[in-house]
Amino acid sequence: MEKFTSSDYRSPQNNDWCASCGDFGILKALQQAFVQLQLSPDRIAVFGGIGCSGKTPYYVGTNGIHTLHGRVLPFASGAKLADPDLTVLAVGGDGDGLGIGAGHLVNSARHNLDLTYILFNNGVYGLTKGQPAPTLQRGEQTRSMPHAANSGRLNPLALALAAGYTWIARGYSYAVDELAGLIQQAISHPGLAFIEVLQPCPTYNDLHTREWYEAEDAGDGEPRLYRLAEHNYQSCIQSGATVNDANTVRQNCYAKVLEWGMHIPIGVFLQDLDTPVAAHGGIPAEKGRAEHLQNAIDDARNNSSGHSLTDIESCYGDLKIDACRLATGDENGQ
Fold it and tell me: I need a surface site. Which of 79, 92, 246, 303 has the fewest CB within 10 A?
């Protein structure tokens, strides 16, 4: 049996990320996770949004799709519905996912499709020269900004929890081996998995730097980043759990995702094994899928004779354009 190595997941494309960008760590972690899972490259699809992170599909030796701004999750969901056995990952930045794409981030959780969404969080719009992203706190000002941010910070993990993602984690781009392990767990989870990755931008964000994240003393003698797994944190909702037990796990999760600033937890926040994973979105996965869709279309046409089911004749008068009046400029149409 063929054994895949990291070289099987590399791309010949030239990488134009800035030197020391945290994206490199995420790319390496992705490739390591694929090796650990021994996934065939032709059975993986990586969808990218718009931004520096959106270039990721070019740099992995798998199927890659560069989508529209904020629309990475609908594209990825469509691929999973069309081919349920495909390993699907969506990647995008905090601006892409929490700005124009926030509606899709929330509504995708309702379906609990079996795919993984990785959010690159660097606090800025890196590709367009460092404007504040939705994850930057009000009052913060990076060197790329003429004024301090005047909008509040969105919390990616709190939003994912409220929306209903069934596996939630946070990683750090320079802890590559640890991040690879999280990605491996996310792909293996039966349902919709969400990973926020803290990813320093050395070019534009001089606030949340590698040195800031890795500070061994955040002001009280303790390191800024700490691992949930080292603090006896319980993240799992077992299949068949009672409502009270499930709510207790979610409440503990919510308390942890609110921690930010002096101390920042990383690791797995939630693993919900009780919420059922979407089978195929109600669309049969067998060969008759196209036939099923065509029958639905034919039914609609037969029931409406190919016309709208709503009578809009009464609106025509309001929409009618008087050609004579347009041509002459005469309000009376003379």
Answer: 303
